């Protein structure tokens, strides 16, 4: 780790501000200009392939335009869209934290209500065929409704309630009419939010420049060895796909890697004490009974089964993309691993064996050096374009700031 000026540190080649703002070397984050043509640039990016990624397949009825993207950004940051006007989409998907949330294992909704799952990054969400880790939605145009009405998220009494709210807000007057064929409605809200999220494309990583542009200097020796392990002995590529012209690093399928099953065993039979980190590097054992006395009861999570009700789908979760994984911790569907090395160790041990374990999961017998090389490769999947996406996101002060 190398300390550099302005309170910035380099971790595995990625520059991170100590205040919690994510930066990539060579791409300084500057104050956003509200008069700039950011939405035009975002629309172009959503319409043309980015190095390493395929062209986005936009719905015919929702092609990207600067106006839609700008309106979607406004909705994404508007805290008035929650029941008590305190929560926005961006409060769980924080631009400066890779459009994820570094601080929390699982998300927190209005009034501090507990959410079972980690808030994943929305970077490159355009390339998922199904949404949420259990695949319960299939379109960015409709995905937004679930968080709006979930009692432990934004807690609105109904989606129609939000439509009426937007119709009453003066600063939205004419905004939907200017971009669609009418005022606020469920489908138009979804189209605007989807248009903005499909503009959050982050490719052009060192890996992409090495593989798709032939730049041998883009990866160092450790990262190249890690790629060899990724495609070979470790077998990661069987689920995190690399194709001839692009790589989205997911098969968009559901797998039981043993993690969900293992976490359920822990939930049912908790340890007497739990290690609690009260400050960096300062950990105390706290009795489970004490934690339970001040906590909401932990709920089970059966993954894909909760959508299909098929017993064969228990503990299966959607394969996440690994793009920008080094800057979007914590990891797993419940944020149970804080660092990439924890994830790699889990896979190296063969997940957690039980009857439903996916046959591709097995002990890998990787050395410590192998694990370091794999982690080095994963840092090469970080896009240098993220600071620009942060800048675009902050083109205006969020509504109800």
Characterise this structure.
The chain has about 400 residues and is mostly helical. It has three domains: about 1-30, no CATH class; about 30-200 and about 385-395, Cytochrome Bc1 Complex, Chain D, domain 2; about 255-380, Cytochrome Bc1 Complex, Chain D, domain 2 (Orthogonal Bundle), CATH 1.10.760.10. Helix content is about 30%, strand content about 5%. The protein is built from 15 helices and seven strands. The protein has helices spanning about 40-45, 65-75, 140-145, 145-150, 160-170, 175-180, 185-195, 205-215, 220-230, 260-270, 290-295, 305-310, 340-350, 370-380, 385-395, and strands at about 1-5, 10, 15, 255, 275-280, 280-285, 315-320. The strands form three sheets. The chain has a three-stranded antiparallel β-sheet with strand order 1-2-3, with no helix packed on it. A two-stranded antiparallel ribbon has the order 4-7. Helix 2 (about 65-75) crosses helix 7 (about 185-195) and helix 13 crosses helix 14. The longest helix has 12 residues, at about 185-195. The model is unreliable at about 1-20 and about 25-35 (pLDDT under 50).
Name the assembly state. single chain
Secondary structure: number of strands: 7
**Can you summarize the main beta sheet?**
3 strands, antiparallel
Based on helices, strands and strand pairing, what is the structural class?
Answer: mainly alpha
CATH homologous superfamily grouping of the largest domain:
Cytochrome c-like domain
Order of helices and strands: EEEHHHHHHHHHEHEEHHEHHH
Taken as a percent bin, the fraction of beta residues is: 5-15%
Estimate the helix proportion, in percent: 25-40%
Spans where pLDDT lies below 50 across 5 or more residues: 1-20, 25-35
Choose one word for the global shape: globular
Structure annotation, total helices: 15
Assign the CATH class of the largest domain.
Answer: Mainly Alpha
Overall pLDDT score? 91
Count up the domains.
Answer: 3
N→C terminal distance: 35 Å
Radius of gyration: 21 Å
From the coordinates shown, what is the CATH architecture of the largest domain? Answer: Orthogonal Bundle
User: What order do the strands of the largest sheet run in, or round the barrel if closed?
Assistant: 1-2-3
CATH names the topology of the largest domain as Cytochrome Bc1 Complex, Chain D, domain 2
């Amino acid at each position: 780790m190398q300390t550099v000026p302005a309170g910035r540190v380099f971790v595995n080649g990625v520059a991170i501000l100590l205040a919690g703002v994510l930066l990539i070397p060579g791409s300084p984050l500057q104050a956003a200009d509200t008069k700039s043509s950011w939405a035009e640039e975002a629309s172009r990016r959503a319409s043309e392939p980015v190095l390493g990624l395929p062209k986005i397949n936009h719905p015919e009825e929702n092609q990207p335009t600067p106006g839609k993207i700008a309106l979607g950004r406004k909705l994404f940051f508007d805290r008035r869209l929650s029941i008590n006007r305190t929560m926005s989409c961006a409060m769980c998907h924080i631009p400066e934290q890779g459009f994820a949330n570094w601080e929390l294992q699982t998300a927190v909704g209005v009034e501090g209500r507990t959410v079972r799952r980690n808030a994943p990054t929305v970077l490159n969400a355009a390339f998922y065929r199904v949404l949420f880790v259990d695949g319960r939605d299939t379109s960015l145009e409709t995905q937004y409704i679930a968080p709006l009405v979930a009692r432990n998220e934004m807690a609105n009494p109904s989606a129609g309630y939000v439509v009426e709210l937007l119709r009453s807000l003066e600063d939205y007057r004419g905004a939907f009419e200017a971009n669609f064929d009418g005022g606020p409605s469920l489908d138009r809200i979804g189209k605007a939010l989807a248009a903005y999220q499909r503009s959050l494309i982050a490719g052009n990583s060192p890996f992409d420049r090495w593989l798709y542009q032939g730049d041998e200097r883009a990866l160092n020796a450790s990262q190249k060895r890690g790629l060899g392990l990724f495609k070979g002995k470790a077998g990661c590529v069987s689920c995190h796909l690399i194709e001839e012209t692009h790589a989205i690093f997911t098969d968009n399928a559901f797998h039981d890697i043993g993690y969900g099953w293992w976490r359920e065993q822990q939930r049912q039979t908790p340890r007497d004490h739990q290690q609690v980190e009260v400050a960096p590097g300062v950990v105390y054992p706290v009795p489970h009974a004490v934690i339970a006395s001040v906590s909401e009861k932990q709920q089970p999570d059966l993954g894909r089964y909760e959508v299909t009700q098929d017993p064969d789908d228990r503990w299966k979760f959607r394969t996440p993309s690994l793009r920008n994984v080094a800057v979007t911790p914590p990891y797993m569907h419940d944020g149970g691993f804080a660092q990439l090395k924890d994830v790699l160790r889990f896979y190296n041990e063969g997940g957690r064996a039980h009857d439903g374990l996916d046959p591709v999961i097995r002990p890998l017998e990787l050395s410590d050096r192998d694990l370091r090389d794999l982690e080095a490769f994963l840092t090469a999947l970080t896009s240098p374009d993220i600071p620009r996406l942060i800048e675009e996101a902050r083109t205006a002060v969020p509504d109800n700031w």
